[in-house]
Amino acid sequence: MWGVAGHLSRPTGICLRPRPERRRGQTRFVRTLSRLFCSSIPLMAPAAVSAAAGLPRVPRLRSFRNSWALAADPIPVITGYLDTYGDTVGLHLGGVRPTLLTRDPGLIQHILQKNHRNYPKSDISQGLARYLGHGLLTAEGNYWLQQRRLIQPGFHRQRLATLTELMLDVIDECLAPVVAAARQQGGRVEVPVHELMTATAFRIIARSVFSSAMSEDELQRLSRLLTELQAFYVRTLRQPYLRPWLGLRGQYGHHDRLAAELRQLIGGYIRRRKQQPGPAPDDLLQMLLDVRYEDSGLPMTDEQVLDEAIILLVAGHETSANGLSWLWYLLARHPAEAARLHAELAAVLGPRRPTFADLPRLPYALQAVQETLRLYPPVWMVDRRAARDDEYQGLRLPQGTLISAYLYGVHHHSALWDEPEVFRPARFGPEAPSPPPYAYLPFGGGPRLCIGQQFALTEMQLVLLQVLRRFEVEWVAQPPVLMRPLISLRPRHDIRLGFRLHEKPA
């Protein structure tokens, strides 16, 4: 490895060229690979992690040996590190990059809220802008604050109320083929729930952003592009040692072309919207086109509108699709909880479909969603970088420190939650004790709390209610259900469940 990749200078942490004696006989290909490797892995000085007095560290060799396991299934590896070394630990990500990993809610609150100005997103998150643009998810500093203030009104309660009927219509459209198939098969059909929930959530956000003008082929192509770009980006993060090989194989260029196709597809629709005559639809795209900056009175540029529309599509369906998939998995495994939800629904709604005003009268539905997001948080890891030297309870955090906040680990911490692996929606009930600060972070925390939090919660409750109005959801024997943590936490493989029609469908 050293002959190809070079070596690290212990005093400086700089990736150096291979030692002269190792270069003899190297081919031009190997020398090129060496230069690519050295330039493709950003390294901070070791002091950025190691200077913290007493901070336990995962041995670098162990980090490197576990790099393939980390790439394939990171949650057991990360949890194992923290169980072994403590709630905050230093390690080399993929055996290469110095990182401070934590599931300490106090430290997480410090970086996300109390001293958030000192902790912008790291270049790990910033690298996502290469594929998704500079929208709210990837923007930083004053520009992020300006955009957040501009877009926030689009997610206020009043707009959510107007979007409820749209959401219900899309849900009914997506469930109609399932209902028809169940009737043809004697009242029961097996459903790949992640596929169904992804299609439903993507159509809800696409309809909310673009009204109904996007074709089915366009929606499917958008979904495939976003999934492929996300999977490739996560691979480059977890396996940084593969970056030179991916570059030589043309994978960066290929995915840059996919990102360009994504921008062309959405950008073309935005241009057509601006040119169309007559009254404009009341959707989130029109909101992006109509808003004006307070200081200048000017609208966003076309490029800014495009960036924000892409982010809305990505963030607006990932959370809900994955959360709903896990919700159905949990309810199928816990029929008593599903029965309680059926009883609440029957008592409050009877045969009619829900409205936005009904949601506060269906508290157990919200609690089931909240508990699902605790067990399977869509935002399972967030990263920040120390802009200046800092300290937290005696832990030195030098400038440049990369901090990965392990939110999944916080949600499953036995010191913070009673029986954390148990699905218990009542823990979010009015009589249950409140969790400690920053022990529950399904949408992140601090000023950068997800702007679409209420949108996602509303959507998930409506999908839950509309499915339960029609079906009993039943467990189907299948291989173990595993997680696939990408940018968000999704099932590794689809989950097949039985959907049995009620005797008298609503």
UniProtKB/TrEMBL annotation:
UniProt key word Metal-binding: yes
Cofactor field: heme
Record: residues binding heme: C450
Keywords annotated in UniProt: Heme, Iron, Metal-binding, Monooxygenase, Oxidoreductase
UniProt GO MF annotations: heme binding; iron ion binding; monooxygenase activity; oxidoreductase activity, acting on paired donors, with incorporation or reduction of molecular oxygen
Transmembrane segments: none
Family: Belongs to the cytochrome P450 family.
The protein's name: Cytochrome P450
Origin organism lineage: Bacteria, Pseudomonadati, Bacteroidota, Cytophagia, Cytophagales
